[in-house]
Design goal:
alpha/beta; Rossmann fold; Arc Repressor Mutant, subunit A; 3 domains; five-stranded parallel beta sheet; 15 helices; about 15% strand
Length: about 350
């Protein structure tokens, strides 16, 4: 029986093989990667307990960057950085970023195995602690639909995706306002086909919904709305639209984004909602500031990407910056424009002619 799964990351195949022979002789299972992208691919597709990371592969700090990425994306994986030239500052940085240990490539077999053993103990402790904490679901779901097969499908989905909990089911839209004890669904999935006869009074329904369920939001299922209709519904507070046939992973991604406060709709609908329904005026401009000088050039770049309905992670990837940098830019934009969220920021962006 294998003692553990270890990923060896180094751009030198001789070094990889050397560590692999050593560890497999001790009963460990090893896999190898020659670059950051290969390492992340291995971690996404194979079980891993410990990753041995070369400090300097393609660049001076590549090992540290990979170490950080692993701890963000695979928090239970323990890391050990290895280098040909041990350096105190690099060692301190590695340990600050969560590495279990820092070794010279010239370290003795005993030192390497001792570091591996310590890292395995840390991983077991992390796994033990994680099992004692039951994570809260991303969202609780309430379904408004008269089709039993959709209800069964959603039940099956929540069984496979514990991040989402099926909270309640209604056959008609009017039923959600009849209960003295309000359902706990944070996302209401409303079947457009079932509710279509009631959508003539949609403005009243949506206003009442906001009053009755201030912490919840609506996503429409089985939608055949036109682009213009979707744009109008977005302005009334609807957070997304889902087709009648949707892959489970796409559904999980959509509901996750909505739960995080984002909109699940086509970029054309989002853009149309903002362009067609926000009055373009100079009202509210900060005193003494020209429209094109409210934001810095970099902040305007962020605002333009924001108008494309990209998530924070997508913004970071597109700009080549960290997630924290994106959040800092968003905070500055919100402060300068005196807004509280993305939609308000984009609206003022058009109003101040900061967006094309």
């Amino acid at each position: 029986m294998a003692m553990g799964n270890i990923l060896i990351v180094d751009d030198d195949p001789v070094v990889r093989s050397s560590f692999s022979y050593l560890l497999e002789d001790e009963g460990y299972t090893t896999r190898q990667a020659g670059s950051i992208s290969e390492a992340l691919h291995e971690l996404q597709n194979n079980e891993c307990d410990i990753a041995l990371l070369d400090l300097k592969m393609e660049g001076e700090t590549d090992g540290l960057l990979l170490n950080k990425a692993i701890h963000e994306q695979f928090p239970t994986v323990q890391t050990i950085l290895i280098t040909a030239y041990a350096n105190y500052n690099s060692a301190v940085m590695a340990l600050k970023e969560g590495a279990s240990d820092y070794l010279s490539k010239a370290a003795s077999t005993g030192d390497v195995l001792a570091a591996i053993e310590t890292a395995m103990k840390k991983r077991k402790e992390v796994l033990k602690n994680s099992k004692t904490i039951t994570p809260a679901p991303l969202a609780t779901l309430s379904l408004v639909c008269n089709h039993n097969f959709i209800r069964e499908g959603l039940l099956h989905f929540t069984e496979k995706h514990p991040d989402f909990v099926f909270a309640s089911h209604f056959r008609h839209l009017s039923e959600i306002f009849l209960h003295t004890e309000k359902p706990t669904g944070s996302i209401f999935l409303i079947c457009a086909e079932c509710a279509l006869t009631e959508l003539t009074a949609l403005n009243t329904v949506l206003h009442r919904f906001k009053t009755y369920y201030p912490e919840s939001c609506i996503v429409f299922l089985n939608t055949n709305f036109t682009s213009e209709e979707k744009a109008n519904l977005l302005l009334k507070g609807v957070r997304g639209f889902l087709p009648d046939k949707i892959d489970e992973e796409v559904l999980a991604n959509a509901l996750g984004k909505v739960a995080a406060g984002e909109i699940w709709a086509g970029r054309m609908e989002v853009s149309k909602a903002l362009r067609n329904h926000f009055v373009i005026s100079e009202h509210g401009l900060p005193e003494g500031r020209a429209p094109d000088r409210i934001l810095s050039p970099r902040e305007r770049d962020v605002l333009r990407l924001l108008a494309m309905n990209l998530s924070n992670k997508e913004l970071a990837d597109r700009m080549g910056v960290s997630l924290q940098t994106v959040k800092t830019h968003l905070y500055n934009i919100y402060q300068k424009l005196s807004v509280h969220n993305r939609s308000e920021a984009i609206a003022k962006g058009y109003r101040y002619h900061l967006l094309p």
